[in-house]
Write a structure and sequence with these properties.
The chain has eight helices and ten strands. The chain has 236 residues and is of the alpha/beta class. The chain has a domain at 6-150: Toll/interleukin-1 receptor homology (TIR) domain (Rossmann fold, 3-Layer(aba) Sandwich). A seven-stranded mixed beta sheet has the order 1-2-3-4-8-9-5, with helices on both faces. A three-stranded antiparallel beta sheet has the order 7-6-10, with no helix packed on it. Helix 2 packs across helix 8 (156-177) and helix 4 (77-91) crosses helix 7 (129-143). The longest helix is centred in the C-terminal third of the chain and has 22 residues, at 156-177.
């Protein structure tokens, strides 16, 4: 772990289905975070014997939340309750959220359909009505954000590199302008372009274009598109 003490715990909070992803995808992701010096928090780092609600304290200490939706995500009431709290903090401008669609479609998360929906509705049978409404609202809210999608036959190694780059971008924007950083994502032709960054020399900077499967606001995956990410520090 890159985290050395509770005082700097969790600049990135990971929300995911542990039984499904902990020893596979997530283990590779946190290895990449450690190599790039990105501080993070996952539930296995919590001290044994403490109340699980202490995780929400760690969430409050975080600046970014990675919500990793997978086929078994919605079978866990704990994942869903974490998501509700992530939504609340995001709406208050205290947390930046990056949704990750791990071999699930954004529209299935949003509408609780497909394999993702099967798990959700199984959980619904043993849950209260008020709880279900909060979960559905949180799923719709977070899945409507621009996120990164991994399909079945895509490279996980390349996908993780893309996540690291996006976390670095959001972290930089958050440090400069707080959690309410404004950015846009554009799909552009197969070419490299230059933009000017706002600093004294107005020097032109080349922007790296990442190959990534993005999910748009309608829940449709854009296959292998080249994406240019601009934040409020850049001009066209």
């Amino acid at each position: 772990m890159t985290i050395s003490s509770p005082s700097n715990f969790g600049s990135v909070f990971l929300n995911y289905r542990g039984d499904q992803l902990r020893y596979g995808f997530v283990s590779h992701l946190i290895d990449a975070f450690e190599r790039y010096g990105i501080m993070f928090f996952i539930d296995k780092d919590e001290q044994r014997g403490k109340d699980l609600t202490n995780l929400f304290v760690r969430m409050k200490e975080s600046k970014i939340a990675l919500v990793i939706f997978s086929s078994r995500y919605a079978e866990s009431s704990w994942c869903m309750d974490e998501l509700v709290n992530i939504k609340k903090r995001a709406e208050k401008g205290k947390l930046e959220v990056i949704p990750i669609f791990y071999k699930v479609r954004a529209k299935d998360v949003r509408a609780q359909t497909g394999k993702f929906g099967d798990k959700f509705w199984a959980l619904e049978k043993v849950s209260s009505g008020d709880q279900i409404k909060k979960w559905k609202d949180a799923l719709e809210c977070i899945s409507n954000k621009m996120g990164l999608s991994l399909r079945d036959k895509s490279s996980e190694a390349d996908f993780i590199k893309g996540i690291v780059k996006e976390v670095e971008r959001v972290r930089t924007a958050t440090v400069r302008g707080g959690a309410q950083s404004h950015h846009c994502i554009k799909f552009i032709p197969n070419k490299r372009i230059k933009i000017c960054k706002k600093f004294p020399e107005d020097e032109a900077k080349s922007v790296e274009i990442a190959h990534m499967n993005f999910s748009n606001a309608r829940g449709e995956e854009e296959q292998n598109q080249e994406v240019l990410v601009l934040n409020h520090d850049f001009v066209k």
